[in-house]
Specification:
864 residues; alpha+beta; Aminopeptidase; eleven-stranded mixed beta sheet; two-stranded antiparallel ribbon; 32 helices; 13 strands
Length: 864
């Protein structure tokens, strides 16, 4: 159903509605985005100052000088660091008196750490992963919270301890690098070591809790604290080796390096950027700038980011994707594997966002000259130019589509796969970017192995983005712009630069790509901020269903019983004596049939429903409305379109005598010859019959490779069928077909609901069933029976017909291969019904086509 703020919201401009919603945003939700922007501004300011003495080409040259031995050492140190992380989690679990299986421990520690390192706020993001993984072993979220707090605090203490030891034992060297005198360094080191020694001394052999007012602190056992401290120090040392191996060591000793590394990590933790990004790098460059050449330092930091943060994230994503394979499923059978694999959307969302950022930043940097020379002999210039521009734009799309992956949307999966495949091709045609192509290949593989995890059919375009997400995209654009000006600092800017097109004109190409990406991202962001909030589906409240049921039973239109299926929401009149039933897909807010209840309240309901749809930036549509109500929709300014005709039997005129009923008499006789009999079940007896009806229904769906429909079509649900009467057909005492029918307390009108038959039933079973149903209802003094609508029926072409009318007429004549329009009308025509036209009333003109598409998806069960 659709959740909206109030049922009678007035129609107001979309931008005004969203600005009001933005003003109501709590200040605490603004804290993180504002902090991120401030940190980004400070870091870029520092890097702008530091970059005055280095050149982009020198950084690239330093990257290309990294040896395979250095890269391998860095990878091994990273692997060892993650092994130590597993040991730290084991000690943390011991401190809270919990234990998990070894494979679960390895997965929780490594995957949680990889996510925490890559996204920042490690205690929160990594803790959320551990809740999911360790929860499979019965560990409660409160226990995981204590574990995460313990490991995070001890990591901070270890960083402080390592920095303090460096200040104490190597003060002269640190004084030279940090430009701080030795006396405060030694004094600070002594204070840190003494404070930590006192902290350890205060711990007892067993854990305990200390209450400070309303705050309760868990003090760990001395053994657990010491184990955590030395393991965290070992973890930091291994991480420092991962960076140390990539550096030309120059005059920096390893002990000094570890102290500086620890202090930089601590500053990064305080900054709460993803993995200390920017803060850590600025601190390292500032401290080591006099001992290590700055280009080499920057190159080592870039490689370290990829190895220590990027590789574990990709490996973790691949590990989670591996749970879709039979081997790991067998190892983690049952509930545990399902819970662990639910982390897949989160990790793929982060990887996709990172890949999108990579494409945008790649578009801002120059391609290698040798590779461009090779491309010049293979592709024309326009391919190269358009490839870099399109790759940057697709990177922006990936930044936004990643949000849909987080929400497990199937549309986001398909779009991400398409964007990744196209970007893979563009990465080659824009400059033979083989590393880029490799990363995109990994993303495509991960997507392909996790397809069924993205099974939500909500609309991708109706997905709303948080302010934090938009700020993250903005930071990517800011960083890409800064890198652009850093990489092409020596290029003289002029207006003619925009129009230079040549293979060796890398600056104009990067400038166009980056500007287009920024404008594209800004357009999507502003569209998100200024568009009105879309409604979302929730289950209809029990009270609304009960009130709607009372109204349905007290009036004569039996097709209003579709309101009780539970797949539509309700908009009630002020008196709550009339209502509209509606659902939503995309921007289409579709009301089914005319309002239900006293006709004098219809105008009010129609106007309120249109205001509700427009307030959310949607299109209002009234589906299958009757001819006698058309003036109400015309007065509301809606466009009318004929959909088809509904077959209604006037039961007082329904007889089997006469030449025109020959086929019905034959169907009854043939049915009796085939052993067909009917049995009527009142609603009170239907619950006991449900298993039999379910078997017939499943066989019918399977024979047509179909699934249950909804919205405008009755669907098989236990609660819905239990409120209706059922006529069952038996063939040689075996149930083979049934039909349900909706009625009201007035017993005037009946409407066919769910009708199913098994494939082996007599070919005359359904004709036999409907004939028996009509005779039964006539005997019960009902006036009419609706056999449902024949789509596109009665759409005869005329010289002045609208384009839709002409198209519908063609579909009626030649669309039999897609839907049996003529066959459906032919079957219903056997009963000689009255054909009553049904219409669509919708807002807009061009949007009517989109409305029809959304209505077809609603009938297929899609909701948004």
């Amino acid at each position: 159903m659709v959740q909206e703020g109030t049922a009678r919201r007035p129609a107001i401009p979309g931008w005004a509605f969203n600005i009001q919603r933005f003003k109501a945003l709590p200040l605490r939700r603004l804290a993180v985005p504002v902090l991120a922007l401030v940190v980004c501004a400070i870091v870029l300011t520092v890097f702008q100052h530091l970059s005055q003495t280095i050149h982009y080409r020198s950084v690239v040259y330093s990257l290309r000088q990294l040896t395979p031995q250095a890269l391998a050492t860095s990878l091994l140190a990273t692997a060892f660091s993650y092994v130590v992380l597993v040991a730290r989690d084991a000690v943390g679990l011991r401190s809270i008196g919990a234990k998990v299986p070894r494979p679960t421990l390895w997965i929780g520690a490594t995957v949680g750490s990889a996510l925490g390192n890559a996204t920042g706020f490690g205690a929160l993001t990594g803790g959320a992963v551990r809740c999911r993984v360790y929860g499979t072993a019965g560990i409660k979220p409160a226990q995981v919270g204590r574990l995460t707090l313990f490991t995070s605090v001890t990591l901070g203490l270890s960083l402080v301890l390592l920095a303090g030891l460096g200040m104490l034992f190597d003060a002269p060297a640190l004084s030279h690098m940090t430009h701080v005198t030795t006396v405060p360094l030694i004094g600070g080191g002594v204070a840190i070591v003494v404070a930590l020694a006192l902290l350890v001394a205060c711990c007892r052999p067993t854990s305990r809790s200390i209450r400070l007012g309303r705050l309760t602190l868990d003090v760990p056992a001395r053994r657990d604290l010491l184990d955590q401290l030395w393991l965290a120090a070992l973890d930091v040392a291994a991480a420092s080796v991962a960076l140390w191996a990539l550096l030309p060591h120059a005059d920096v000793g390893f002990a000094q390096f570890v102290a500086i590394f620890s202090a930089a990590m601590l500053l990064g933790m305080i900054g709460h950027t993803p993995g200390g990004l920017g803060v850590f790098e600025a601190s390292m460059v500032f401290a080591l700038g006099g001992s290590v050449e700055t280009p080499a330092m920057v190159a080592a930091l870039l490689a370290y980011r990829v190895i220590y943060f990027g590789v574990p994230l990709l490996v973790s994503s691949a590990l989670l994707a591996g749970f879709e394979g039979h081997a790991l499923k067998a190892r983690f059978a049952g509930r545990g594997s399902r819970d662990i694999t639910q982390l897949v959307p989160l990790f793929l969302s982060i990887v996709t966002f990172a890949v999108g950022g990579m494409l945008v930043i790649s578009g801002a940097t120059p391609a290698f000259g040798r590779r461009l020379a090779i491309l010049q002999t293979v592709v024309p210039l326009w391919v190269l130019e358009s490839s870099q521009l399109l790759a940057s734009l697709l990177g922006v799309l990936l930044l936004f589509v990643a949000r849909g992956l987080l929400r497990r949307l199937d549309a986001a999966w398909w779009l991400t796969m398409l964007l990744a495949v196209v970007s893979l091709a563009l990465s080659l045609t824009k400059g033979l970017a083989f590393v880029e192509a490799g990363v995109l290949g990994v993303l495509i593989t991960l997507l392909a192995t996790t397809r069924h995890r993205f099974n939500r059919s909500s609309s991708l375009f109706s997905e709303r983005f948080t302010l934090t997400w938009l700020v993250s995209v903005g930071i990517v654009m800011i960083v890409a712009s800064w890198i652009l000006f850093f990489a092409f600092r020596d290029v003289q800017y002029s207006r003619d630069l925009w129009w230079n097109f040549a293979f060796d004109e890398r600056a104009p190409r990067a400038l166009r790509a980056t500007l287009s990406a920024c404008l594209f991202a800004a357009t999507i962001a502003f569209w998100q901020l200024l568009r009105p909030a879309a409604g979302r589906f929730v289950e209809p409240p029990a009270g609304d269903l009960a009130d709607a049921a009372k109204i349905v039973r007290s009036q004569e239109r039996s097709d209003a019983g579709l309101a009780l299926m539970g797949d539509k929401s309700f908009l009630f009149s002020k008196s709550r004596e009339a209502f509209l039933m509606y659902a939503k897909h995309g921007r289409t807010w579709a009301a089914l049939h005319d309002p239900v209840g006293p006709r004098e309240e219809w105008v009010e309901l129609i106007g309120e429903f249109m205001a509700l749809a427009h307030a959310h930036g949607g299109r209002a549509a009234f589906y299958q409305v009757r001819a006698d109500a058309l003036p109400l929709y015309l007065d509301a300014g809606l466009t009318l379109m004929k959909l088809g005709e509904e077959a209604r039997l006037v039961l007082s005129d329904f007889e089997l005598a006469g030449a025109h009923r020959t086929h019905l008499r034959y169907a009854l006789k043939r049915g009796e010859r085939d052993g067909l009999t009917v049995e009527m079940f009142k609603p009170s007896l239907v619950p006991e019959l449900l298993p039999v009806l379910r078997g017939i229904s499943d066989a019918w769906l399977e024979s047509r490779s179909a699934k249950e429909k909804s919205f405008s079509v009755a669907a098989f649900t236990d609660d819905y069928l239990s409120a209706q009467s059922v006529m069952l057909v038996r063939q040689q005492d075996t149930p083979v077909a049934f039909v349900t029918f909706m009625t009201t307390d007035l017993n005037i009108d009946a409407t066919v609901g769910v009708m199913r038959h098994v494939p082996s039933a007599s070919p005359y079973a359904m004709e036999y069933l409907f004939t028996k149903l009509a005779l039964y209802l006539k005997q019960e003094n009902f006036r009419s029976l609706s056999l449902g609508m024949a789509p596109l029926s009665g759409m005869n072409p005329t010289p002045l017909a609208s384009p839709w009318h002409r198209f519908a007429s063609l579909m009626w004549r030649f669309g039999g291969r897609f839907y049996n329009f003529r066959g459906l009308r032919g079957f219903k025509s056997k009963f000689q019904p009255n054909w009553e036209p049904r219409y669509l009333a919708a807002s807009g003109s061009v949007g009517v086509v989109l409305t029809l598409a959304d209505l077809s998806l609603l009938a297929e069960g899609w909701r948004s």
